[in-house]
Specification:
Number of helices: 10
CATH architecture of the largest domain: 4-Layer Sandwich
Number of strands: 12
Order of helices and strands: EHEEHEEEHHHEEEEHEEHHHH
Low-confidence stretches: 188-209
Shape: elongated
CATH topology of the largest domain: Glutamine Phosphoribosylpyrophosphate, subunit 1, domain 1
Helix content: 25-40%
CATH class of the largest domain: Alpha Beta
Strand order of the largest sheet: 3-2-4-1-10-9
Length: about 280
Amino acid sequence: MCLIIYKPAGKQWPDAQTLHHIWSSNPDGFGVVHRTRAGAIQMTKGLYFPGEIEKILDCTISDDEPAIAHWRLATHGGVCDRLCHPFESKAGWYLAHNGVLPKPWGNARKGQSDTTELVHALRHTSFDSLAAMPEYLGGKIGSRNKLAIMSPAGQVVLVNESEGIWIGGVWYSNLYSLPWGYERRNRRPRFREPTPTPAAAEPDHWAEFERWYYDERGKARLAALPAYPAFDDITSPEDARLWWEHATEEEIELVAKQHGINSEAIYGFLLGTWGRFYE
């Protein structure tokens, strides 16, 4: 089903391991078109092995040059240099295709492919006309088909762009040609806004029920916990009641350890001090 990669100026190609994986899924031809620093359009295509493709991308195209690369998996026509993408039109633009085109282009003549039939049908169409109607052209070829088109000036139009995916500032026409997890590993981390604290709501925990009240505007609010004394400062039944209600399990265990007693002894002390409230 092929793969198109559009690398804008200032971006980089995938690493060698990823390029090898792409070729293994689409081994029937490779091509790349780019705009040089001098402003010229250069295209290279043919039947290449992964090492040759890596050398072409690294040695002939600099990071600051926009480029469209295509790996082919043949569905129409033979496997040969002539049917490798991109294709140059008579109007001077270059086109790479990913997908299987419907009729009439899908009924390719002998020795042709569905993509060459489309390029032939559009042979006299200017790039400006194509750039003005990507949605129209996308509707004609169907959403499962994607096109990357480069003008003689190096401008690029992506048809059915939303059906592909942008990863790290580079556009890929599909994910199934990429190694598993490539998208996750190469996406830039997104800044997350801090989650706002939700407004106070009706309590759903019985232990906190009595602390909730409604203010003068009728909004539910949670009252602050009352201060309670340290265990060693308990001198009255009220102190014992407060400590009993608000001390955590960790705090009880810590007090028991400090005094060399167990938690049952602490409960006994509190109940003895707080007897009349408990009864």
